[in-house]
């Protein structure tokens, strides 16, 4: 069954509302064709591999987490990587919608998905940014060792490289922020969390965690956000039950 493109993207806007978008972001429609959609690709990044997968599965639309247009595109040049990517999306009439900070902020978005994986209880927002709630703090059902938490990520999410900084301790209270969330570590320290989980945690952030008696776990930018993809699929199928939805659940950029 095919659904009108406007109907699908309006639904995304109703869930990941524009008022949830931070001032520096560019969530929402990136490329729009007024057409009918039966197949959609979900991905974190719109790149050549995502485009290839979309074309191979006859997708009329891509919904991504990271925006296609983010850095203030000034030109589209045939023969360049970005130019060929954008022109191919247009020539193949593939609409692109991106939910970035809108899906970070919404209560059942990126951070909810990571907290659900950890089965955190008593969840609250970790911090405010641009006046919007970001991240989650909650509690595990029971204390766990850091080794148990690492094993869960490695076994169930297939994360091979996890950097962990700090001093070994039992974990009960956890703060998290998907993506590049190290700037919120102070909030985790203030609320008494034993563990802070995010991506893109730098070496000196790890030193800061050690000095402030919290464990900082860097599961990688991609892996800290990828659970939003099955969540988007769940939401879409609740409304558009006959959509064919494909998920690109690997990173095009990480080699090892």
UniProtKB/TrEMBL annotation:
A molecular-function term among this protein's GO annotations: metal ion binding
Organism lineage: Bacteria, Bacillati, Bacillota, Tissierellia, Tissierellales
Entry protein name: GTP cyclohydrolase 1 type 2 homolog
Positions in coiled-coil regions: none
A Pfam family the protein falls into: DUF34_NIF3
Keywords: Metal-binding
Binding sites annotated in the UniProt record for a divalent metal cation: 65-66, 104, 221, 225
GO cellular component, one term: cytoplasm
Signal peptide (from-to): none
